[in-house]
Amino acid sequence: MSHTVITTTTTTRTSGESGLNLGYTRTIPGLLKIGQLISLLIAFLCVFCTRGWPSWPAFQYFEVVTLWFLVAFLIFFLMHLCRLQTRMPCINWPLTEFFHYSVGCILIFIASIIASAKSGGVSALVAGSVFGFIATFLMAVNLWTSYSVACGPQSAV
Predict the structure, then answer these.
(1) For 5-58, what is each residue's pLDDT tens digit?
(2) What is the gyration radius of the CA atoms in the chain, in angstroms?
(3) Average of pLDDT values for 116-128?
(4) How far apart are CA 140 and CA 155, in angstroms?
(5) What angle do CA 65, 94, 81 make, to 5 degrees?
(6) Are 30 and 24 a contacting pair, CB within 8 Å?
(7) DSSP secondary structure code for residue 83 in this structure
(8) Which of 128, 67, 135, 127 is nearest to 101 (CA)?
(9) Contact by Cβ (8 Å): 112, 129
(10) Cα(19)–Cα(107) distance, rounded to whole angstroms?
(11) Calpha distance 18→22 (Å, rounded)
(12) CB neighbours (10 Å) of residue 14?
């Protein structure tokens, strides 16, 4: 006796599994990340495009810190936008973001204080430090809202 077995496999994609998660840009964490990216970019460009710094080491530190966290937060934003964190479950992403935001909040706040103190009345440098403070505030808000996700009480399973 011969038997023939026909197997049919169908795959369906729901709207939640598409390549880009554009709905993330309309959520509170998405809007906070966009605000942080814009304020860090403006802060970096204000200092980068200004010549005749009153204190060269202070503004080099400000540039390095703002550029580093601009790139780090851009990577986090793109990961959420492309849903890459679901493909790498071995990393605790909420805790990783919480760590980066806490370190970034402290370092950018310090850099903004130093930049505002050493600006010497140069308006572009003052504007850069103001946008550094805005980025710090947005990071603190994001840190506060993500605290319950990363460090909140864990349910026992």
Answers:
(1) 676 655 544 544 557 888 888 888 889 999 999 999 999 999 998 887 788 888
(2) 22
(3) 89
(4) 26
(5) 80
(6) yes
(7) T
(8) 135
(9) yes
(10) 34
(11) 10
(12) 6
pLDDT (tens digit per residue) in 46-102: 999 888 778 888 889 999 999 999 999 999 999 989 988 888 888 888 888 889 899
End-to-end CA, the chain: 50
Neighbours of 142 (CB within 10 A): 23
User: Is-contact 97 29, C-beta < 8 A?
Assistant: no
Q: Please name which of 110, 92, 94, 109 lies closest in space to residue 142, comparing C-alpha atoms.
A: 94
Task: Give the separation between CA 61 and CA 55, rounded to whole angstroms.
Answer: 10
Instruction: Decide if 133 contacts 46 (C-beta within 8 A).
Output: no
Residues found in the chain:
157
In this structure, what token pair is assigned to residue 37? Answer: 């990216």
The tokens describing 30, both together, are 């998405």
Structure tokens at 16: 């939640």
For the chain, where are the alpha helices, taking DSSP H only?
28-48, 56-82, 93-117, 123-151
Q: In angstroms, rounded to a whole number, what is the distance separating the alpha carbons of residues 22 and 103? A: 28
Measured from the Cβ of residue 62, the count of other Cβ atoms closer than 10 Å reads 29
Residues ≥6 apart with Cβ < 8 Å to 76: 33, 97, 100
| Longest CA pairwise span in the chain (Å) | 94
